[in-house]
Every structure is written in C-alpha cells, then in structure tokens.
C-alpha cells in the first residue's frame, strides 16, 4: 500500500517547516471547531505558504499574509452567500444530489471546508466525514469527489491525473516547481524545483 504522504513529500523535496507552530494549529482548530487532517497539516507545515506547479496554493495558520484561518473564513463566507436553493442546477452541477448531502453548508459540523485552491478556479473542500476522508473539488461549474486523504489527492494531482473532474489535469513533466508566496508587498520569491522524479 502506497504511503501517499511520503510519496508527495518525495516529489516536493525536504520539509522546510519555516512556520511550523503547533500552537497556531491549536488556535485554528479551536476557532473552526474541527480538526484538519494530520497529512494536510504535515504538508502545510513543511512548505506553506506556497504555490505548487504554478497553480495550487496552500496557506499556513501561523503567518499574517496567506493566513490559512483567514483564507478558510473568507471562502466560507463567499460560498455561503451562493443562493443554492434558487439556482436551476442540473444534477451534475448540484453537489447535494451528486454526493448525497442532506444540505449544503460551508464551515459547519457536517459541511464543506475550503482547504486549498488554484488560480484556475478550483477549490478543494474537505468534508469532515467520520467514516473516511472525503474531498470535494469544484472546478468550472463541475464537482468531483475523492474518498482519499489530501496527501493522496496531491500526489495524484502532481502526476497528472484528473483530480478536479474530467479533463482537469494540470501535468508538468520534470520536477515539481515550487515558489514561496511573498510575505511582504515588495518581496518577489524565486521559484525552485523539487527533486528529479523521472517524469
């Protein structure tokens, strides 16, 4: 059985842990009223705030800029303002019908939690399900579901699988490209490459 956290870390390179702070996670979990998964926390601590392969963004709970808690709250507010009951959605556009959700809510006990996004318009949601990890991804008015942990989703995303729906792959051969997100208005971080991965 594949250790997807180790596999994803192998593609990204050595953990940097620039902002790792258990207290920041404790404060965030208290504020949210739920625990974010350990594999997700490990990846965020290791690299965030970061842009991966020019598209995927991960924020961090211990930083002022690109703050994970503020990002989650902002996206919860935006998604909660969508008038879902008033929209004339086709079955394949309605996450309630697609995934058997009794209601569609964001940032609630049984709701969706936005934990990552891309500059292509994808939002990666965690559904805090007691039975197994579930990720729901919204992309271009479509939804995809993956019953897997975030580390597996990230690994499959980086090797070029359609992880946001049909024809959604964003595969780049060669090493994964990483870029720290700027921590001040005048900072321009240079990108760097992860280890060679034979792709």
Annotate the secondary structure layout:
Elements lengths: L3 H9 L9 H11 L5 H10 L2 E3 L3 E3 L9 H13 L14 H5 L12 E7 L4 E5 L6 E6 L2 E5 L3 H9 L18 E4 L11 E2 L6
Antiparallel strand pairs: 1-2, 1-7, 2-3, 3-4, 4-5, 5-6, 7-8
Helix pairs in contact: 1-6
CA distance, first residue to last residue: 21 Å
Q: What pattern of helices and strands is seen along the backbone?
A: HHHEEHHEEEEHEE
The largest sheet has its strands arranged as: 6-5-4-3-2-1-7-8
Number of domains: 1
Percent helix among the residues? 25-40%
Note the beta-strand portion: 15-25%
What report would you give on this structure?
The chain is of the alpha+beta class and 199 residues long. The protein has one domain (4-82, 93-182). 29% of the residues lie in helices and 18% in strands. It contains six helices and eight strands, in the order H-H-H-E-E-H-H-E-E-E-E-H-E-E. It has helices at 4-12, 22-32, 38-47, 68-80, 95-99, 150-158, and strands spanning 50-52, 56-58, 112-118, 123-127, 134-139, 142-146, 177-180, 192-193. Strand 5 and strand 6 (142-146) form a beta hairpin. Helix 1 (4-12) crosses helix 6. The longest helix has 13 residues, at 68-80. The two termini are 21 Å apart. The mean pLDDT is 92. This is SMI1/KNR4 family protein. It comes from Streptomyces poriferorum.
């Amino acid at each position: 059985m594949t250790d997807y956290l180790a596999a994803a870390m192998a593609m990204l390179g050595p953990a940097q842990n620039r902002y790792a702070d258990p207290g920041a996670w404790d404060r965030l979990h208290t504020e949210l009223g739920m625990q974010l998964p350990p594999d997700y926390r490990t990846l965020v601590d290791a690299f965030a705030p970061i842009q991966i392969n020019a598209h995927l963004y991960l924020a961090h709970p211990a930083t002022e800029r690109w703050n994970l808690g503020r990002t989650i709250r902002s996206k919860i507010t935006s998604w909660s303002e969508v008038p879902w009951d008033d929209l004339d959605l086709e079955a394949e556009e309605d996450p309630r019908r697609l995934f058997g959700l009794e209601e569609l809510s964001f940032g609630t006990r049984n709701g969706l939690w936005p934990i990552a996004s891309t500059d292509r318009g994808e939002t990666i949601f965690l559904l805090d399900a007691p039975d197994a990890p579930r990720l729901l991804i919204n992309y271009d008015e479509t939804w995809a579901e993956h019953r897997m942990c975030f580390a597996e989703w990230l690994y499959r995303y980086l090797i070029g699988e359609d992880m946001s729906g049909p024809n959604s792959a964003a595969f780049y051969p060669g090493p994964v490209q990483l870029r720290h997100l700027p921590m001040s208005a005048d900072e321009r971080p240079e990108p760097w490459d992860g280890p060679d991965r034979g792709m």
